[in-house]
Amino acid sequence: DDRTYTIRTELDKATIKGKLYYKNGGGRVLENAPGKNYLDVDVLDTEDGLDNINITILGTVPSPSSRLYELKIIYFDVQDADEDVLPPVVVSVVDYSKFQSSIDAMNDKYSNLSGILDEYIGKADTSILSDYLDLANNNISLAEGFYGDGEYRKADSKLTNASDWLIKAETEANKVKAEY
């Protein structure tokens, strides 16, 4: 084979161990240096070739910075090979408290903007504000349902949509107040 396989992870405080097994029966054990989230494995060019590489990774999931993100548990760079020739192992990390905080914050914002709609209805043109709030509310409701069903990617997408509609509704609410 005579190439380098770089084994990487996004886990914190990771220990990566690689065991190489050659078809001729020989093998080697390698471990990453402390503080490094990668291990370079130089595969020697032997007559019979490489049989397999066993990899063990231990580490901790980093503290979440958002309600949902993807974390590469293991991914590879292979010398003289196409990118992602070996597919990565990716997991979704959910911060339940941030998810619930986002839902609560959007419900609060929706309620506040609905109060403005109620206050100005019949006094100014509130049709666009009403439409934006309906769209936001629909996305919040869908997000809550998906969240309750454990479909976090769908819930995250709907919360992002709801946030966009609430921003538009807030801008429209300011216009309604200015027109009155």
Describe it.
- The chain is α+β, with helices and mostly antiparallel strands and about 180 residues long.
- Helix content is about 40%, strand content about 30%.
- A hairpin with a 4-residue loop joins strand 2 (about 10-20) and strand 3 (about 25-30).
- Helix 1 (about 95-120) packs antiparallel against helix 2 (about 125-150) and helix 2 (about 125-150) runs antiparallel to helix 3 (about 150-180).
- The chain is rod-shaped and about 85 Å long.
- The N and C termini lie far apart (about 75 Å).
Chain-wise SSE layout:
Blueprint: E1 3-8, E2 12-22, E3 27-31, E4 38-43, E5 50-60, E6 68-78, E7 89-94, H1 96-120, H2 127-148, H3 152-179
Antiparallel strand pairs: 1-4, 1-6, 2-3, 2-5, 6-7
Question: What is the gist of this entry?
Answer:
The chain is of the alpha+beta class.
Kindly list the characteristics that best describe this protein:
180 residues, four-stranded antiparallel beta sheet, three-stranded antiparallel beta sheet, 3 helices, 42% helix
Termini Cα gap: 75 Å
Strand order of the largest sheet: 4-1-6-7
| Percent of residues in beta strands | 25-35%
- Spans of at least 5 consecutive residues whose pLDDT stays below 50 are none
**E-strand count:** 7
Fraction in helix: 40-55%
Order of helices and strands: EEEEEEEHHH
Q: Structural class of the secondary structure composition?
A: alpha+beta
Arithmetic mean pLDDT: 92
Number of helices: 3
**Biggest β-sheet strands, sense, barrel:** 4 strands, antiparallel
Radius of gyration: 26 Å
Q: What is the 3D form?
A: rod-shaped
